[in-house]
From TrEMBL, chains A, B, C, D:
Regions annotated as coiled coil: none
Pfam families reported in the protein's UniProt record: Beta_elim_lyase
InterPro entries: ArAA_b-elim_lyase/Thr_aldolase (IPR001597), PyrdxlP-dep_Trfase (IPR015424), PyrdxlP-dep_Trfase_major (IPR015421), PyrdxlP-dep_Trfase_small (IPR015422)
Protein name as it appears in the record: Aminotransferase class V-fold PLP-dependent enzyme
Natural source organism: Epilithonimonas vandammei
One term of GO molecular function: transaminase activity
Record GO biological process: amino acid metabolic process
Repeat in keyword set: no
Keyword tags: Aminotransferase, Pyridoxal phosphate, Transferase
Similarity comment: family membership: Belongs to the threonine aldolase family.
Length: 343, 343, 343, 343
């Protein structure tokens, strides 16, 4: 029998509501390129949820695509973007940002989150104009690539710092649902819209087949974004596929319910590890946890479950990554906890 | 009542078999990024259909994406690509190719098809090395953007010319299904694989929700293509979505059946126009036709149907574009023909 | 004995005044990167000559460099530039503009000059937003690559058309000296500054060792240009080399005297051809002429002089290009005319 | 009276031999674009000096230009380059390399020099193919940006490591003359040619008005380099200017004599600081020294001399940078030493 995989949160298809909607709408004639009724409906629902009528919303197929589109549309040739070293754009997108011509400054952080002092340190090192790139954009992820989230006070400080220093703030929200439904979260979607210039709402890792909703709130960044989508090969002829999915996810609270489910499953597992006295690489409250196990414990656990060994801590121990999804069943979680307790 | 649209061949969703397969496979755990079972299956089926085990196959979401990926992965910075002026890359992709750093030479043609003499004319104008770009790639579409197709002899001559002149030959197959099932076609998928260095098989315009299968047959062009897919934001986390679709389309002859249906519907309409004595902008045998009508006839026809006015011929007359799809119903075609006969 | 070459206007070194100034200033300590006293002086002199205190002036080493710097600093990723097919950026710079990510539209013209109707034709073909690039810049050369010049009325009409259509106007002035001292010229340097948004004053082809002075008059285009110069590798550590040269050229009327000399020498030769009844490929009044000769005449002339065969007219006849420089001696011109008269 | 500046090594013009050669050759007709007699002569002399007939040599105007040309011509779109954090390409070229589409990995080092373990650490962090860029090139500077040099054993180890790991090795030789004439140097020009794939010999910082000689020894990297030079705007119409300068510098041992002079002057100053018991930021044996002074000492010294405050060490002390050139006179050095002794 195949082992259950905790390797990532995109191992399944999509929420059944989406499949039903695809069937129901299948033969209806719609305009192409995102000018269909479903995209319109999805945009409306998102605007309502963030209480902001003025935002521009665009649907694209994935996170790397969203990142390179947003960043390359904003920056002029001599401008750069600041990221944590753990930021997805820094090492996990095959140089996608540099391929559009821009430097990414990577900063070492303890928890994957940027603070004003991080950014200030980059600014301080780049005062020799015009011999150095000009920093113009700050890229953060929420939840971060290592499962942590931004608290309201942190985002407010970052937002204020960026405004003061004439920097745009861009939030990668590939797992924004998980961040906003974390038990320690105190931010709302409306806060995110107010405190950033542009962000996206991830569908791929939260119950969609594919799709991210890029939301531009800063008026200066809205202009002519569609050209960039087309130029970068990111405009789907059948944009309806994205509209239908976001429309379904936004109806009632499905998007948040799914994210919460993934968080809850991870927290149950985290709790089991904690009770057994395990340490973690970082303390997380979303759908990713990084418990530190001995090599023999990892081997034992790997007999029945798949997961990534994330980071070697020393010769005897490593952190593993357990990641849950919108679809992770209770039964599996219970089984896994039994296995943990037997370590 | 809403008018039926002959504006394009991506107004509907997808073939029902695809929806059924999505449902059936929905909760099965699969690897991400195209390493799933369905992609494997689809690749196998394509290889069988083209009788070529060695090709590398990659699935991406759309035509512009496929074009920019293939071209930018092949060319070195000082190299350029040759296209017909009607070629999709020349004017309909918001400078996607130039955005990757490469010049596109656009050539006027009568029928959207490149011939050796077209290419020779570009080579002749670029002999002042190193002050001019070096031509390295020839881009053709089959069927072309104006509905015509390449005959076997034409493709052979082009292929030979390219080999002789150290040029790669790339076929945009966004509508390759329609080309291969055209009543005048004498090419097979195997021929295409043999006579080009790289080509793609379009799904978006032939019954899929999205997806193009890039097929690389020239060994020199295979290397490290995955890096490019990731860098350009074209790698879907849930690559299964593309695998499932191409797998369904390739089972039996569904892909070709759907393409043929769209051709047949267009040919019935063409025949009706012909019988009434209408001229065409170009003679086509695929799912696009360009009849020339008087302004008042266009107005009349537009009362019940949507279509694009393609090109003004003179003050009194214009060519319109009628395009049919895998889903265009017989009933609609019959109605439309009645309308034509009443002109 | 070596034949005299009429192949181009950059076969010699530089005007002796420049060499003297290099010697005189050689050991004086100066700031690097264009912040030296000589650049300041040269800028002041140029501003006086064009009666415009507000322009930003930057010195770079060559024409292709100036072209790619100006164009890539102005355009956003989805924007394009319009040029004549004979324009230097279209076919003679190894895709330098496309390498910065932008499409160049090439237009066939009879005389190398763009007119409003040429530009309108490109605009008319690019109305399908956002599927096509957005035109934002018009590139013209004066004198053109085929020796013709813009008259005041033509430049005024072009300037007005660009303003009306939200297009910037950029003049390549690699041979602007020759244009402004042509016998049929009615434009002043001040006119050029007023009617374009950015242009440059060529030194390389008018008595300097190297160097072009980029002059930005449109306030919107001035911002942060230095970053681009540095990023593209165009910022000389010893910027004094450019400052010293332009300073010398701008003193008294040296720049214009040199240009006029090259024109006068060409016109003497043109007159000799005319008197003998020769036709020309285009009628020019600067330092390039394109007389049409029979093959045997070309052969005869080539015994004593070097020049390019420019364009085959028919099997028996071709146009040759004769180009004179700031340094072409009277004696050589007289000899050449004797040779012409003997044809 | 103006203070003497130790701010950089490009504050003067050029060695008088160059000016004399410019005068002597001024009116001789030469081919453009580097096909002149002087470039040929200079290439021959360089090949003799490095005892290598097969290298390809190209002259360009500056270091940033050389760096971006070499790197962008070598790398495919998904490949990256490794540099020390102090490397010129990492922070002092306004993102020139990223602007050509490539990521630069910056590594913290103690002395500005890369060792195999540095490079290995980058390789270890980039094993997730194709989600991460592929390292293909190692960039080092000799002397480094902070005045240190590579010893033969170090360069051999690096060269071997690169070969083993399928990486190219590129040496920025903006100050290679200074490195090769340092009192602790044990490398020859021939060694450099043998141990790297491509490097350049800096003229701008060693007695030329401008100019770097790019030397390509790896056959695979030679092909079609001229196209890149032209495309990046780096091809001078009057290439003779570069040929004449390198020809003069390479005659006898002028190039090395000038470099040695600059080293000797710096070492005299270093010795004076050492005798007074000053510490240094790094131990250098070329024309740059970084003594650490108290704020009041810096203030005192700055009364008569210009120099950069390089790095704050603590509230009371900073390192300054003293840099000498081919033209720094003995008298000035003596005066400066008197000032040091009075601190």
């Amino acid at each position: 029998m195949k082992k259950y995989s905790f390797k990532n949160d995109y191992s399944e298809g999509c929420h059944p509501n989406i499949l039903e909607a695809l069937i129901k709408t299948n033969l209806r004639h719609q305009n192409g390129y995102g000018y269909d009724d479903y995209c319109e409906e999805a945009k409306l629902l998102i605007k309502q949820k963030m209480n902001n009528d003025d935002a521009d919303i665009h649907f694209v197929s994935g996170g790397t695509q969203a990142n390179l589109l947003v960043i390359s549309s904003i920056l002029r040739p001599h401008e750069s973007v600041i990221s944590a070293e753990t930021g997805h754009i820094f090492t996990n997108e095959t140089g996608a940002i540099e391929a559009t011509g821009h430097k990414v400054h990577g900063l070492a952080t303890s928890d994957g989150k940027l603070k004003p002092e991080h950014i200030q340190s980059v600014l301080d090192l780049h005062t020799n104009k015009p011999h150095q790139v000009k920093q113009k954009l700050v890229y953060i992820s929420n939840s971060t690539e290592i499962g942590t989230i931004y608290k309201k006070k942190e985002l407010q400080e970052l937002s204020e710092f960026c405004k003061t220093n004439d920097l745009y703030l861009f939030m990668d929200g590939a797992r924004l649902g998980q961040a906003l439904t974390s038990e320690i979260n105190d931010l709302t979607l409306e806060d995110i819209a107010n405190l950033t210039d542009v962000f996206y709402l991830g569908g791929t890792k939260n119950g969609a087949l594919l799709g991210e909703a890029i939301i531009i709130t800063n008026k200066k960044l809205k202009e002519e974004f569609g050209f960039h989508i087309k130029q970068k090969g990111a405009m789907l002829a059948k944009g309806r596929l994205l509209g239908i999915q976001f429309s379904e996810l936004m109806k009632n609270e499905l998007y948040f319910d799914l994210a919460k489910h993934s968080n809850v499953q991870a927290m149950k597992i985290k709790s089991a590890f904690q009770k057994k006295g395990f340490q973690f690489l970082s303390e997380t409250f979303t759908n990713q946890i990084f418990p530190i196990l001995s090599n023999s414990q990892i081997e034992k656990l790997a007999e029945n479950f798949d997961f990534y060994i994330w980071k070697k801590v020393n010769e005897e121990r490593s952190a593993i990554r357990i990641i849950t999804s919108w679809a992770t069943p209770d039964q599996i979680v219970d089984d896994f906890i039994i296995n943990i307790n037997q370590l």
